[in-house]
C-alpha cells in the first residue's frame, strides 16, 4: 500500500491551529503561555503525525514526484511565525477596529461614563468602558479605557485612549504604546 502525502483534512487541521494562534496574537498583549501550550500539544501531535508519515514513506521510497505535497503543511507554520514576528494579526485587527473604537472613546471621554454593556467596536468585543484613573485613584478627564472580551479565553486586556500624557505602569497594569493616543492595556488576571 502506497503512503500518500497528508490530505485536505490534515491541511485544515494545521490551518486551524495557525488561525487560533493568530487570533490569540491579535490582542494588545499576547497570550504567550496559552499560545505555547496549544501549539505544543495540538500542533505537536500534528507535527508528530506528519514526521511519522513522512518517515515511513521515505523508508519505502515513495516520496518521488510528490515532495511539494509533502512539504505544503510545513509552509503554514512558517507563514504563522512570520506573521507573529511582524505582529500582523494585531495590526490588522486594530487598524480595522480603530475608527469605531476612537468614535466610542471620544463619546465616553466627553460624557465621562462607566458602561458595562457589551458591544462590538470593529473586531473587538468591548464589555467595559470607563475613564482612565491614575494609580492614586484620580480620574483623568478626556480619555477612555475599553476592556475587550475574547471568546477563546478569559482576558483582561483592552485599550486606553489618552489624548494627553501617558498611562502609569503599576504592579497590576502594563501598557504598550500603539499609535497616536492609543495604548494597549493588560491588567491583573485575578489568579
Mean pLDDT: 86
N-to-C CA distance: 53 Å
Major beta sheet summary: 6 strands, antiparallel
Q: Rg from C-alpha positions? A: 22 Å
**Largest sheet, spatial ordering of strands:** 1-2-3-4-6-5
The unreliable regions are none
How many distinct domains? 2
Rough shape? elongated
Tally of DSSP β-strands: 6
SSE class = alpha+beta
Strand content: 15-25%
Count of discrete alpha- or pi-helical segments spanning 4 or more residues? 4
Question: What can you see in these coordinates?
Answer:
This protein has a six-stranded antiparallel β-sheet with strand order 1-2-3-4-6-5. The chain starts with 7 loop residues before the first helix and ends in a 5-residue tail after the last strand. Helix 1 packs antiparallel against helix 2. The chain is of the alpha+beta class and 191 residues long. The chain is built from four helices and six strands; from the N terminus they run ααααββββββ. It has two domains: 8-86, no CATH class; 90-186, no CATH class.
Would you summarize the structure shown here?
This protein is an alpha+beta fold.
Amino acid at each position: 500500500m502506497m503512503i500518500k502525502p497528508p490530505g485536505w483534512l490534515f491541511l485544515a487541521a494545521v490551518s486551524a491551529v495557525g488561525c487560533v494562534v493568530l487570533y490569540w496574537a491579535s490582542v494588545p498583549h499576547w497570550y504567550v503561555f496559552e499560545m505555547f501550550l496549544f501549539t505544543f500539544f495540538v500542533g505537536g501531535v500534528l507535527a508528530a503525525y506528519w514526521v511519522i508519515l513522512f518517515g515511513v514513506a521515505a523508508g519505502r521510497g515513495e516520496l518521488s514526484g510528490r515532495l511539494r505535497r509533502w512539504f505544503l503543511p510545513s509552509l503554514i507554520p512558517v507563514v504563522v511565525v512570520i506573521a507573529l514576528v511582524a505582529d500582523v494579526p494585531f495590526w490588522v485587527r486594530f487598524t480595522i477596529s480603530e475608527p469605531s473604537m476612537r468614535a466610542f472613546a471620544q463619546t465616553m471621554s466627553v460624557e465621562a461614563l462607566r458602561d458595562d454593556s457589551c458591544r462590538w467596536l470593529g473586531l473587538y468585543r468591548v464589555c467595559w468602558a470607563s475613564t482612565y484613573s491614575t494609580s492614586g485613584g484620580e480620574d483623568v478627564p478626556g480619555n477612555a479605557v475599553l476592556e475587550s472580551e475574547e471568546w477563546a479565553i478569559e482576558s483582561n486586556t483592552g485599550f486606553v485612549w489618552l489624548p494627553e500624557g501617558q498611562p502609569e505602569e503599576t504592579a497590576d497594569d502594563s501598557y504598550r504604546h500603539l499609535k497616536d493616543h492609543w495604548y494597549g492595556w493588560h491588567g491583573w488576571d485575578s489568579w
